[in-house]
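FORM 12-B: Structure-to-Sequence Request
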C-alpha cells in the first residue's frame, strides 16, 4: 500500500514523478578532424569540453564522439546507420563537409549527403544539429559562398538546428594564424572553447 500511495502522490504532485521516466540524453558527434582532437592533447577538444559543460550545468547526458579525421560527408553517410543502431542517440551533431571542400568534391554531392544524414538522424528519433563550415578565400569567392550556403539550405529544408560556422571567432579574427596549427587548417587547443561556444548556441535549445 505504501508503494501505491507514493505512486499516486507522484501523479498529482509536481516534481515527484520518477526520474527514470525520461529518456536519457545521448549525444553523438559525427565529425572529422575538427571534432576528433587532431594534433591536440586528448581531452582538450570541443567534444570533451562539451561533456564537461554538461556536467557543470547539471545536464545529465552521455557524449559519444564518433568522429574520424579525414572523413567526408560520403564517409559519414555510409557509417551513420551503424552509429545510429549502436548508440541510439537522442541528439545527433553532424560536423562534416570541410574535407569535401578540401578535396574539391561536388557541392551537390555534399548537399545530398548532409540532407540524407539529417533525415536518417531524425528518422531514428534524434534531434539533429548541423554544423556549418567555410573554406579559405583562395578557393574563390563563388565556391566559398556556395559551399557556406549549402549548410543553411539543408537546415532550412529539413527544419533542423544549425551552427552556421564552427570556426567563427577563430578563423575570422585578426590574429587567426596564432590560433591554428602549422597546417593552418586545424585549430590549436586554445581555440576549442570558442568552437564549443558556437556548437552550444545551437545545441542548448535542443536539450
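FORM 12-B RESPONSE
SEQUENCE OUT:
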Amino acid at each position: 500500500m505504501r508503494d501505491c500511495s507514493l505512486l499516486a502522490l507522484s501523479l498529482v504532485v509536481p516534481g515527484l514523478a520518477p526520474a527514470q521516466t525520461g529518456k536519457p540524453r545521448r549525444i553523438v558527434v559525427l565529425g572529422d578532424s575538427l571534432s576528433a582532437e587532431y594534433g591536440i592533447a586528448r581531452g582538450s577538444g570541443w567534444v570533451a569540453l562539451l561533456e564537461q559543460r554538461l556536467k557543470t550545468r547539471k545536464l545529465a547526458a552521455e557524449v559519444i564522439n564518433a568522429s574520424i579525421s579525414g572523413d567526408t560527408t560520403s564517409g559519414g553517410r555510409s557509417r551513420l546507420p551503424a552509429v545510429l543502431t549502436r548508440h541510439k542517440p537522442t541528439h545527433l551533431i553532424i560536423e562534416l563537409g570541410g574535407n569535401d571542400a578540401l578535396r574539391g568534391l561536388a557541392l551537390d554531392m555534399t548537399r545530398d549527403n548532409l540532407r540524407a544524414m539529417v533525415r536518417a538522424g531524425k528518422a531514428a528519433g534524434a534531434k539533429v544539429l548541423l554544423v556549418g563550415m567555410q573554406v579559405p578565400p583562395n578557393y574563390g569567392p563563388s565556391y566559398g559562398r556556395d559551399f557556406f550556403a549549402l549548410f543553411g539550405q539543408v537546415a532550412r529544408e529539413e527544419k533542423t538546428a544549425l551552427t552556421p560556422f564552427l570556426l567563427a571567432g577563430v578563423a575570422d579574427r585578426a590574429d587567426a594564424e596564432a590560433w591554428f596549427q602549422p597546417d593552418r587548417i586545424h585549430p590549436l587547443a586554445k581555440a576549442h572553447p570558442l568552437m564549443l561556444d558556437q556548437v552550444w548556441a545551437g545545441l542548448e535549445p535542443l536539450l
